Amino acid sequence: MTSPDLQFELRGAIAVVRLSRPAKRNALGDALILALRNLFETLPSDAKAVVLHGEGDHFCAGLDLSELKERDASQGLHHSRMWHAALERVQFGPVPVVAALHGAVVGGGLELASACHIRVADDSTFYALPEGSRGIFVGGGGSVRIPKLIGVARMTDMMLTGRVYDAAEGERIGLAQYLTTKGGAFEKAMALAERIAQNAPLTNYALMHALPRIAEQPADQGFFTEALMAAVAQSAPEAKSRVKAFLDGKAAKVQKD
Ligand code: 1HE
């Protein structure tokens, strides 16, 4: 399933995915959510990283509220599960996803951003969870993912009081890992994605699929899973050639910027 509101373009090894419904502030209707899922399920194998961004003045205004009024409880349940399936494909898809944020990152827009691996925000970004004031609850995995970024207390505050975090506060509390000047998020996200695309594929896979699971495991199991993942990663030919390149003086040292 595709949607005219979701644009896709391959720039070298980077898949650029754009929410493209600026007149409605990139609000996410069912068709757009299904298209997002389909896109992440069918990414070309040439894509080694994704940059996700939004057209217009805002990243995303969240759920398309005009579709909400038609739903009963049972439909609401299935609707939420549909979001879960789509955002699961973003988080646990084939390659890392860098979100370039600006303007409103609210409600389901913040849920979508939270499913990405890295968030880069520009100065115009603001974050909110207006579900509280709309009489609803998060339904796109936000109650699982957002507390992992900022803690239960901050998310509770956002939903109980309608608190809005600006870009600088958002970076400070962990909603974004990078902060740029206005208009700079996309370029920074592309630069990070280019860097990510150069990693050994198995390392990126381990970071996307093993790390979040290890972080959920009791320490004893986590250590064991880590050892298994480390053994698999270091046995790949790519790991051996990269380590050899360093030892031969042919690979970059770690350097301060
Ligand atoms: C929308 C939506 C939307 C805008 N659904 N149509 N999300 C919210 O509660 C956020 C609601 N939106 C806003 O607070 C503001 O629109 C923004 C801060 C994002 C942007 O403000 P602004 O002044 O740039 O735009 P606007 O004039 O408010 O909106 C422009 C149009 O987009 C307008 O339609 P128009 O036909 O009158 O031009 C708006 O109605 C429309 N629009 N946001 C539908 N969200 C999986 S569960 C997730 C649960 C949630 O995400 S709840 C939170 C929903």
Structure description:
The structure is a single chain. By secondary structure, this protein is of the alpha/beta class. It contains 12 helices and 9 strands. Strand 2 (14-19), helix 1 (30-41) and strand 3 form a beta-alpha-beta unit. Helix 4 crosses helix 6 (142-150), helix 6 (142-150) crosses helix 7 and helix 10 (201-216) packs antiparallel against helix 11. It is globular and about 65 Å long. The relative contact order is 0.12. The model has no long low-confidence stretch (mean pLDDT 95). The structure holds 3-methylmercaptopropionate-CoA (MMPA-CoA). 3-methylmercaptopropionate-CoA (MMPA-CoA) binds next to helix 2, strand 5 and helix 5.
**Sheet/helix structural class:** alpha/beta
Q: Categorize the overall geometry.
A: globular
Total strand segments = 9
Strand arrangement, major sheet:
1-2-3-4-6-9
The Cα radius of gyration reads 19 Å
Give the proportion of residues in helices.
40-55%
- Strand percentage lies at 15-25%
With helices defined by DSSP (H or I, 4 residues minimum), what is the helix count?
12
How can the largest sheet be summarized? 6 strands, mixed
Uncertain stretches:
none
H-E order = EEHEHHEEHEEHHHEHEHHHH
The rounded distance between the terminal residues' Cα atoms is 43 Å
What compounds sit in this structure?
A: 3-methylmercaptopropionate-CoA (MMPA-CoA)
Kindly state the mean pLDDT as a whole number? Answer: 95
Please outline the helices and strands:
Elements: E1 6-11, E2 14-19, H1 30-41, E3 49-54, H2 65-68, H3 73-91, E4 97-101, E5 104-106, H4 108-114, E6 118-122, E7 126-128, H5 131-134, H6 142-150, H7 152-161, E8 165-166, H8 167-173, E9 178-180, H9 185-197, H10 201-216, H11 219-235, H12 237-247
Parallel strand pairs: 2-3, 3-4, 4-6, 5-7, 6-9
Antiparallel strand pairs: 1-2, 7-8
Helix pairs in contact: 1-3, 4-6, 6-7, 10-11
Bound molecules: 3-methylmercaptopropionate-CoA (MMPA-CoA) (1HE).
